[in-house]
Amino acid sequence: MKIAIVILNWNGKALLERFLPSVVANSNEADIYLADNASTDDSVAYVKNAFPEVKIIVNKENGGYAKGYNDALKHVDADLFCLLNNDVEVTENWLDPIINQFNQDQNTAIVQPKLLDLNQKDHFEYAGAAGGFIDKFGYPYCRGRIFNAIEKDEGQYNDTCSIFWASGACLFIRSDFFKELKGFDEAFFAHFEEIDLCWRIKNLGKEVTYVGASTIYHLGGGTLKNTNPKKTYLNFRNSLFALTKNSAGMLLPKILLRLLLDGVAGIQFILLMKPQHTVAIIKAHLNYYYHLSRMLEKRDQPSKIEKYWQTKSIVWSHFVNRKKKFNRL
Question: Is residue 224 included in any domain, yes or no?
Answer without folding.
Answer: no
